[in-house]
């Protein structure tokens, strides 16, 4: 497996691929087994016949086909969840391929061999294609097996078409990422830009049915090529050709940019800016102020990215607010949509407060405070732990910090304080934007509940900070990040399953998701005991880590 | 091919900041060329430009007669490289790492890999992340040498190696040199340069300020000589002699402490005219010669 760059890249991911595939198979199974519940729901059938087509399209649903296995999977699996997973993978792998390797410094050694730059980039591009193919194939195989078992009635050609489309879609974003990485050499910037482009492309396509002015831009979105003419039902289309062309074009761009790059000199991309930075002979007053303590340094590290987290989340929320008026125009239809959806299905996604779903509170909650918002704050908390603590320890930087007169528990405490503060900044930005959106689109929510929902959201994120840092203090740098992510996913499903499977009901109370979501959507309730539980875990986990770290070996 | 490395006017700027400016360098085939200079002088920039990790802002260069930009792949096929800031795939064992890199060169360097690992007392079957700095450096050295290239470009090759391993490295350099290989290395360890280099180039503030054989640099070294006479001698007898840079009479003039640059002939002849009781001399370290270049004091010619 160490024959060349291509096989080495695959070898590198041999372990992590298992997790991607297992996750993807479980996700596919999860959605597939829900189908029979939906298909047998008569209320759903009636409703689909009456509901305005454009609004259904905003949910990725087509009334003529939704009740078929193909229509259901197109809407529930292939238009949102599967692309998220696949594109997440291709962006992560795309960042690692060029910018990541360069930042780690291993690119020098690789390019000291007689393998040309273009060949290195091409081999990495091809390994990305193979690995993405494995993930997509795991969906295809799972559905092929489930197809006869639960009567999904899928055509093999359609399944092949949507899966190849998904594979190409992932590669388009993967190669965009590689090209950005080859241009900037900065992994963080590359990942952020690529994710931004992917989210934008998704929104443009998803919201196009609601806004006329989005119609033309949406044709440029790779998502529109991917979903063109319902591939799962109708097979291959011109969309596949566009995806293929775009994929090849971005791969070639990545090759050319990489061949011209000055390796390991990020500044070489924007020489003037770099030179300006270099001319600064003094530490700016703001930096000097922050660099006085461990906590200040932790804030300083994120003095730019915190705005991206805050405004990124806010932008998504704003789009949800903006969609409300057109939905409210058909509020009765929306109400009947919600009522006709099987309760068990909604409960699986933590939506137990079904009565509220057709209200602005419920709509905004389900789209941001109950889904995207928690994901963002939890990912922020876990990545903050990874970079502030776990990677500081494994790279030996923590050794340096502790070689000063800092007390061990203090270091953890100060870093935690920084995260608490940053989380506050993120939700404050969100709160500001939400209060403005509430007025702008006349959603008429109680501002007090907006405040409490944001407090709850921050506490949910911090709860996972407490879990992350607590786990780190016990199991060490390697493994603690993955373990926390696993806890987040497992407790999410525990909350959903607990609401629909009686057997699991009593255990729901163990899930932080339940503490946050409860049975009332966050925007329709004030402060709850659940929030107190979240805060207790956040603080408790941090205190535990501080105490435990006092007597723990460093970096072993 | 007269030169293993030849550059003319090679310049690399990072934005407005100079990395290396107007470098005219010739490294002969078969020699060991030491590339010295203070931190940040442009050594690593030069090396990374020769390897085409960086593209020259202006000027050009050839390595093994091949253009450093156009023919970089062919150059790299025939070159062994060790970076100054060694980063490796931490999750691999040293063996996996080295096998991978010999595969990328399309070679089976297994035997040489084992041989070198043996010489440097390196356990190949541990994960790279578990190695100490010195052991990581050994992996880098093995990687640069195991395919026995024609040219070695090494950025501070012995950084982190213990004295025993430094000796082993110097032995290895002598071996590959006797096989006809060329070596271009940067180093801060002057005794090491003294032992292995034929010629030395010194860079300071992005410019090449001196290139010469090691012998010539040594000739610039100051020597201290202390003469003890039976009878007191007047200090002016010695202080005015050619090459004497300082003269000090001690012990009422019976002891004369002198510093001499270049030939000692005049001093010896002047002393011979008197009754000399004892002579002790000490050659200043090569280090002092280089330091004068590094710091740019007036002492440097």
State the main characteristics:
heterodimer; A: mainly alpha; 2 domains; 26 helices; globular; B: 301 residues; alpha/beta; Rossmann fold; Alpha-Beta Plaits; six-stranded mixed β-sheet; four-stranded antiparallel β-sheet; 11 helices; 14 strands; 33% helix; 31% strand
Largest interface: A-B, 33 and 34 residues
SS summary, helix count of chain B = 11
Tell me how many strands of chain A there are.
0
Order of helices and strands of chain A: HHHHHHHHHHHHHHHHHHHHHHHHHH
Brief summary of the model shown:
The complex is a heterodimer of chains A (556) and B (301). With 556 residues, chain A is mostly helical.
Task: Describe the overall structure.
The complex is a heterodimer of chains A (556) and B (301). Chain A is an all-alpha fold and 556 residues long. Helices cover 77% and strands 0% of the residues of chain A. Chain B has 301 residues and is α/β, with parallel strands linked by helices. Chain B has helices at residues 43-50, 72-77, 94-104, 110-119, 133-145, 163-178, 190-196, 214-219, 236-239, 265-272, 286-295; strands spanning 3-14, 17-28, 32-36, 58-63, 66-67, 79-82, 151-155, 182-186, 199-204, 207-213, 222-229, 244-250, 255-261, 276-283. A six-stranded mixed beta sheet of chain B has the order 6-7-8-3-9-10, sandwiched between helices. Chain B has a four-stranded antiparallel beta sheet with strand order 2-1-4-5. Chain A binds chain B through residues 2-5, 8, 12, 104-116, 260, 262-265, 267-268, 271-275, 278-279, and chain B through 13-17, 48, 51-55, 72-74, 76-77, 79, 81, 83, 85-89, 91, 96, 99-101, 103-106, 143.
């Amino acid at each position: 497996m160490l024959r060349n760059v291509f096989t080495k890249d695959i070898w590198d991911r041999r372990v992590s691929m298992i997790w991607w595939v297992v996750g993807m198979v479980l996700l596919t199974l999860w959605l597939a087994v829900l189908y029979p519940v939906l298909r047998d729901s008569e209320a759903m059938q009636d409703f689909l016949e009456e509901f305005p087509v454009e609004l259904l399209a905003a949910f990725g649903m087509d009334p003529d086909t939704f009740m078929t296995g193909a229509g259901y999977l197109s809407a529930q699996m292939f238009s949102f969840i599967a692309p998220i997973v696949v594109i997440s993978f291709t962006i992560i792998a795309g960042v690692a391929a060029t910018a990541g390797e360069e930042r780690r410094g291993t690119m020098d050694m690789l390019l000291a061999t007689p393998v040309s730059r273009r060949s290195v980039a091409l081999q990495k591009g091809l390994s990305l294609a193979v690995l993405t193919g494995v993930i997509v194939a795991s969906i295809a195989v799972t559905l092929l097996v489930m197809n006869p078992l639960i009567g999904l009635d899928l055509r093999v050609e359609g399944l092949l078409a949507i899966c190849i489309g998904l594979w190409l879609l992932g590669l388009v974003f993967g190669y965009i990422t590689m090209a950005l990485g080859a241009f900037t050499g900065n992994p963080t910037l590359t990942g952020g830009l690529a994710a931004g482009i992917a989210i934008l492309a998704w929104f443009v396509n998803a919201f196009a049915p609601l806004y006329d002015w989005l119609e033309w831009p949406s044709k440029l979105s790779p998502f529109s090529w991917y979903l063109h003419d319902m591939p799962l039902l109708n097979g291959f289309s011109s969309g596949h050709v566009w995806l293929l062309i775009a994929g090849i074009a971005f791969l070639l761009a990545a090759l050319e940019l990489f061949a011209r790059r000055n390796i390991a000199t990020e500044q070489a991309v924007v020489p003037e800016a770099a030179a300006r930075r270099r001319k600064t002979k003094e530490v700016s007053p703001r930096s000097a102020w922050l660099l006085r303590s461990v906590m200040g340094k932790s804030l300083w590290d994120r003095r730019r990215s915190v705005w991206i987290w805050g405004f990124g989340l806010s932008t998504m929320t704003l789009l949800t607010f903006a969609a409300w008026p057109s939905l409210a125009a058909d509020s009765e239809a929306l109400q009947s949509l919600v009522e006709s959806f099987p309760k068990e299905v909604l409960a699986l996604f933590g939506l137990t407060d079904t009565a509220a779903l057709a209200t602005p509170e419920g709509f905004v909650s389900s789209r941001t405070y109950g889904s995207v918002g928690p994901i963002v704050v939890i990912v922020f908390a876990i990545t903050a732990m990874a970079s502030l603590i776990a990677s500081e320890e494994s790279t030996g930087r923590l050794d340096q910090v502790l070689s000063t007169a800092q007390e061990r528990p203090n270091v953890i405490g100060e870093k935690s304080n920084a995260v608490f503060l940053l989380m506050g900044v993120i939700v404050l930005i969100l709160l500001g934007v939400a209060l403005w959106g509430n007025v702008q689109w006349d959603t008429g929510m109680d501002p007090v509940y907006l405040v409490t929902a944001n407090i709850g959201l921050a506490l949910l994120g911090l709860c996972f900070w407490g879990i992350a840092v607590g786990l780190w203090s016990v199991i060490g740098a390697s493994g603690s990040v993955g373990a926390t992510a696993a806890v987040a996913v497992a407790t999410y499903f525990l909350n959903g399953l607990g609401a629909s499977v009686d057997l699991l009901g009593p255990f729901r109370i163990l899930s932080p998701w339940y503490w946050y979501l409860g049975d009332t959507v966050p925007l329709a309730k004030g402060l709850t005991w659940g929030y107190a539980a979240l805060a207790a875990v956040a603080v408790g986990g941090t205190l535990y880590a501080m105490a435990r770290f006092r007597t723990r070996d460093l970096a072993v | 091919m007269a030169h293993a490395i030849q550059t003319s006017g090679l310049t690399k700027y990072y934005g407005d900041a100079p990395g290396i400016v107007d470098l005219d360098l010739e490294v002969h085939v078969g020699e060991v060329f030491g590339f010295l200079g203070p931190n940040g002088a442009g050594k690593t920039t030069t090396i990374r430009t020769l390897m085409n990790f960086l593209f020259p802002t202006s000027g050009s260069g050839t390595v093994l007669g091949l253009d450093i930009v156009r023919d970089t792949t062919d150059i790299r096929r025939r070159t062994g490289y060790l970076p100054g800031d060694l980063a490796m795939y931490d999750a691999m064992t040293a063996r996996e790492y080295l096998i991978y890199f010999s595969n990328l060169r399309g070679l089976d360097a297994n035997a040489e890999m084992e041989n070198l690992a043996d010489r440097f007392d390196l356990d190949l079957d541990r994960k790279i992340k578990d190695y100490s700095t010195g052991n990581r450096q050994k992996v880098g050295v093995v990687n640069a040498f195991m395919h026995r290239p024609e040219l070695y470009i090494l950025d501070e090759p012995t950084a982190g190696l213990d004295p025993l391993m430094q000796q082993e490295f110097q032995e290895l350099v002598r071996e590959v040199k006797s096989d006809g290989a060329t070596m271009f290395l940067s180093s801060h360890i002057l005794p090491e340069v003294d032992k292995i280099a034929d010629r030395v180039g010194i860079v300071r503030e992005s410019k090449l300020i001196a290139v010469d054989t090691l012998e010539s640099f040594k000739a610039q070294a100051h020597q201290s000589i202390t003469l003890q006479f039976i009878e007191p001698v007047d200090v002016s007898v010695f202080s005015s002699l050619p090459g004497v840079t300082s003269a000090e009479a001690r012990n009422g003039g019976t002891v004369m402490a002198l510093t001499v640059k270049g030939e000692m002939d005049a001093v010896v002849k002047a002393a011979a005219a008197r009754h000399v009781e004892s002579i002790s001399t000490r050659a200043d370290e090569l280090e002092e010669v280089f330091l004068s270049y590094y710091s740019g004091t007036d002492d440097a010619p």
